[in-house]
Specification:
34% of the residues lie in helices and 24% in strands. With 394 residues, it is an alpha/beta fold. It folds into 2 domains: 6-176, Rossmann fold (3-Layer(aba) Sandwich), CATH 3.40.50; 186-285 and 292-389, Rossmann fold (3-Layer(aba) Sandwich), CATH 3.40.50. The strands form 6 sheets. The protein has an 8-stranded mixed beta sheet, with helices on both faces. The protein has a 5-stranded parallel beta sheet with strand order 2-1-3-4-5, sandwiched between helices. A two-stranded antiparallel ribbon has the order 6-7. It is globular. Bound molecules: flavin mononucleotide.
Length: 394
């Protein structure tokens, strides 16, 4: 099922490197052409000859790299995927920093293909805030993290950090390579907060990080859709493989959406668009002693309501952050805007947080997804949308 696919398998220096030999065997068995790159410390755990024998290709090492012109550039080109398994805590830290101090990190940095990372380490190394920070950075950079599994560890402890079993990695790979559930669909997503200027240095905004919208956009790309992401100001990097449009204010977002909405099939409004803007934006910085006692506000246009009310609207999905009575408030919003699907989340728990609990409201009722990281939640949402768009069986 992987016939004709070229895969770079990166192996780092952890105990689980021995499992990587089985992974190489399974990938080759499924038809992939596998090139293995080992870190110097990986060779202390497993011999390169093992991988050479299993893949039928010479193994790339820091020492042998100098025999070839630009292997770090060439290796990441024309590949279906770079799969690093096991990925050590150290390698994850180096990838998070964009370092290029050996052939494997150089290849990852110069790649033109997706990168999947399969962590394997002691549970305390895994749970350490430094490792979790680095992993979050990788996710924000569009890198897919596979696992880890929980259970008995080589060090004798029990907990999260075991490398995902090779057959499960191959299963996940095969699933990702199926034609996506949104193949052929054009999806427009909004994300992030908006900024409404009071003067050149002050503004009204909100606590949205943009993570949920970016995750939805990434999940839609993974599902095979052609995706445009219209984003308010965030610190996040654009996920790979989509068209990115950056805006600042609610009116900027409104214009960017209206310009593109006629070319989309699905509109997913995740952005926390400011409901109000200052009635007047001062062109000069307002002096401290001239501070107004109050700021008059004007309502911003409701982008989602506008799109949903178009004569031929796309399939519209709204996001609502509520602080109480989620179902009641959410359902009232969904009906008022005539949306096929509304996603409600608890504002206090969702804004700025790395994970989320989504409550979906549609004509069939309520669907609650358990709290998980935002990308996993986004993948579940995309699967639900694809299900809703399926023609009914007659
Ligand atoms: C016996 C032994 C086992 C190790 N196992 C792991 C492991 O499972 N996961 C991990 O992240 N680091 C592990 N380490 C530490 C890494 O080998 C070390 O951080 C190394 O610098 C990683 O290099 P690399 O990321 O370039 O492969 C282990 C070290 C030793 C000596």
């Amino acid at each position: 099922m992987l016939a004709g696919k070229q895969i770079v398998l990166g192996v780092a220096g952890g105990i689980a490197a021995y499992k990587s030999a089985e992974l190489a065997r399974l990938l080759v068995k499924a038809g992939a052409a596998v090139q293995v790159v080992m870190t110097r410390s990986a060779t202390r755990f497993v011999g390169p000859l093992t991988f050479q024998a299993l893949t039928g290709n010479p193994v790339w090492l820091d020492e042998t790299a100098s025999e070839d012109a630009m292997p770090h550039i060439r290796l990441g080109r024309g590949q279906e995927l770079i799969l690093v398994a096991p990925a050590t805590a150290d390698l994850i830290a180096r990838l998070a920093q964009g370092r290029a101090d050996d052939l494997l990190t150089q290849t990852c940095l110069a790649r033109e293909c997706p990168l999947w990372v399969v962590p394997a380490m002691n549970r305390q190394m895994w749970q350490n805030p430094a490792t979790q920070r680095n992993l979050q950075q990788l996710r924000d950079d569009g890198i897919r993290i596979v696992g880890p599994a929980e259970g008995e560890q080589a060090c004798g402890e029990t907990g999260p950090g075991r490398m995902t079993e090779p057959q499960d990695i191959v299963q996940e790979l095969l699933a990702a390579m199926q034609p996506g559930v949104l193949a052929g669909q054009r999806v427009l997503v909004t994300a992030g907060p908006t900024i409404e200027r009071i003067d050149p240095v002050r503004a009204l905004t909100n606590f949205s990080s943009g993570r949920m919208g970016y995750a939805v956009a990434q999940a839609a790309v993974e599902a095979g859709a052609e995706v445009t992401l219209v984003s308010g100001p965030t610190c996040l990097q654009a996920p790979a493989g989509l068209d990115m449009v950056r805006v600042e204010s609610a009116s900027g977002m409104f214009a960017a959406v209206m310009e593109r909405v006629k070319d989309c099939d699905i509109f997913i409004s995740v952005a926390a668009v400011a409901d109000f803007r200052p009635a007047v934006t001062s062109p000069e910085k307002i002096k401290k002693d001239a501070a107004p006692a109050s700021i008059a506000l004007l309502p911003n246009a409701d982008i989602l309501a506008h799109v949903a009310a178009l004569p031929a609207p796309p399939f519209c999905v709204g996001f609502a952050a509520e602080t109480s009575r989620l179902v009641e408030h959410g359902e009232a919003k969904r009906r008022a805007k005539r949306l096929p699907l509304l996603v409600v989340n608890q504002a206090q728990q969702a804004l700025g947080s790395p994970d989320n609990e989504l409550l979906l409201l549609d004509d069939r009722g309520e669907h609650l997804f358990a709290r998980t990281d935002k990308l996993s939640a986004a993948r579940q949402l995309i699967a639900h949308i694809a299900q809703m768009l399926k023609p009914p069986v007659t």
